[in-house]
């Protein structure tokens, strides 16, 4: 792999290889290099999970984290993203993790930046590392993707998580269906829409999405209770899920809106497991990208993967 920008163009082999690496990474004792590698996390949008789990992953790989802050950087003087990235590369960052509000922005950086780039979320585009941790959570539960029925439910139109997961799950042989109110449907995604009630009853994985208020053109007038009743996972809907079916949500969760508050930590919920898996998949992606360029982050991790 040269970069990690999108799930759309990853092969089944590449996804499975990374999932196996992530699954193994938790159990592997890592010995750091003597000369640390530097990594820069450039977040131009707010983040808790992605930024913190990248930081934990990088430190667990023995890397030194350059904690870039947009507010205190020369971006405030008008420096472009390209020049910011080029600067961090010049001063020694071996890898750049970037979250940015503009779709496809990393594709544009690829031409001039030589170190690996990792997409930590680009506008409404993709969120491939979130997708990898979702896939790992599903794989740990069912040990397969082929034939699994996965419903992606909610604000599809504004969700980069929906896009990455729909592409990847299709690549892996899962059956994907979408469910959303009409104004949040995205017809560019080649999957069928079903009602919320159909989705919860027929699927093995019920993947809820956060309402992306920050990406809406206008304030939605619907109140929280209305949304939960019409399109959210209520206690009554949860009772109609298959016995073995699980609940995913990329978080942050709007409790009582996309999902009843009491279901966030219920037996079927894997929401906090998803977050734990975020560290392992990010370790796997970083170490794979560096290894593919001949740099080993941790000797005995690589021997065992
Ligand atoms: N799921 C996710 O990307 O969360 P953060 O925005 O907190 O990183």
From TrEMBL:
Key word Transferase present in the record?
Answer: yes
The record's keywords, sorted A to Z, are: Pyrimidine biosynthesis, Transferase
Pathway info: Pyrimidine metabolism; UMP biosynthesis via de novo pathway; (S)-dihydroorotate from bicarbonate: step 2/3
Q: Which GO terms describe its molecular function?
A: amino acid binding; aspartate carbamoyltransferase activity
Binding residue positions for L-aspartate:
77, 160, 210
Give the top-rank taxon of the lineage listed in the UniProt record for this protein: Bacteria
Domain (Aspartate/ornithine carbamoyltransferase carbamoyl-P binding) spans 3-140
Q: Which reaction does it catalyse?
A: carbamoyl phosphate + L-aspartate = N-carbamoyl-L-aspartate + phosphate + H(+)
Cellular component annotations (GO), alphabetically ordered: cytosol
Query: Where along this sequence does the record place binding of carbamoyl phosphate?
Result: 49-50, 99, 127, 130, 251-252
Q: Does the keyword Cytoplasm apply?
A: no
Q: What class of enzyme is it?
A: transferase
Location of the Aspartate/ornithine carbamoyltransferase Asp/Orn-binding domain:
146-287
Q: Which Pfam families match?
A: OTCace, OTCace_N
Q: What Enzyme Commission number(s) does the record list for this chain?
A: 2.1.3.2
Q: Name one GO biological process term.
A: 'de novo' UMP biosynthetic process
Query: What is the protein's quaternary organization?
Result: Heterododecamer (2C3:3R2) of six catalytic PyrB chains organized as two trimers (C3), and six regulatory PyrI chains organized as three dimers (R2).
Family of the protein in this entry: Belongs to the aspartate/ornithine carbamoyltransferase superfamily. ATCase family.
Which NCBIfam families does this UniProt record tie to the protein? Answer: asp_carb_tr, PRK00856.1
Q: What does this protein do?
A: Catalyzes the condensation of carbamoyl phosphate and aspartate to form carbamoyl aspartate and inorganic phosphate, the committed step in the de novo pyrimidine nucleotide biosynthesis pathway.
Name of the protein this chain belongs to: Aspartate carbamoyltransferase
Native organism is: Terrihalobacillus insolitus
Specify the taxonomic lineage.
Bacteria, Bacillati, Bacillota, Bacilli, Bacillales
């Amino acid at each position: 792999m040269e970069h990690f920008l999108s799930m759309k163009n990853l092969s089944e082999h590449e996804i499975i290889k990374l999932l196996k690496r992530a699954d193994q990474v938790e159990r592997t004792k890592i010995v750091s290099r003597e000369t640390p590698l530097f990594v820069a996390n450039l977040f131009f949008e707010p983040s808790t999970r992605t930024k913190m789990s990248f930081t934990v992953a990088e430190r667990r790989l023995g890397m030194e984290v350059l904690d870039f802050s947009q507010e205190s950087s020369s971006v405030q003087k008008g420096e472009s993203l390209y020049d910011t990235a080029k600067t961090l590369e010049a001063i020694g960052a071996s890898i750049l993790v970037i979250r940015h509000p503009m779709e496809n922005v990393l594709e544009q950086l690829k031409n001039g930046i030589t170190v690996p780039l990792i997409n930590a979320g680009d506008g409404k585009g993709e969120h491939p590392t979130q997708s990898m941790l979702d896939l790992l959570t599903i794989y740990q539960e069912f040990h397969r993707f082929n034939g699994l029925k996965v419903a992606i439910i909610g604000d599809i139109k504004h969700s980069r998580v929906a896009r990455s997961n729909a592409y990847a799950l299709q690549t892996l042989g899962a059956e994907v269906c979408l469910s959303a109110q009409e104004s949040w449907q995205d017809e560019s995604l080649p999957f069928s829409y079903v009602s919320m009630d159909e989705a919860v009853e027929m699927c093995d994985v019920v993947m809820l999405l956060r309402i992306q208020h920050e990406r809406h053109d206008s304030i939605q007038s619907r109140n929280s209770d209305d949304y939960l009743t019409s399109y959210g996972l209520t206690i009554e809907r949860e009772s109609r899920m298959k016995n073995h079916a699980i609940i995913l949500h990329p978080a942050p969760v709007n409790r009582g809106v996309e999902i009843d508050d009491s279901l966030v930590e219920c037996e079927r919920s894997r929401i906090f497991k998803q977050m734990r898996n975020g560290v392992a998949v990010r370790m796997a992606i970083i170490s794979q990208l560096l290894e593919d360029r001949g740099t080993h982050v941790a000797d005995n991790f690589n021997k065992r993967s």
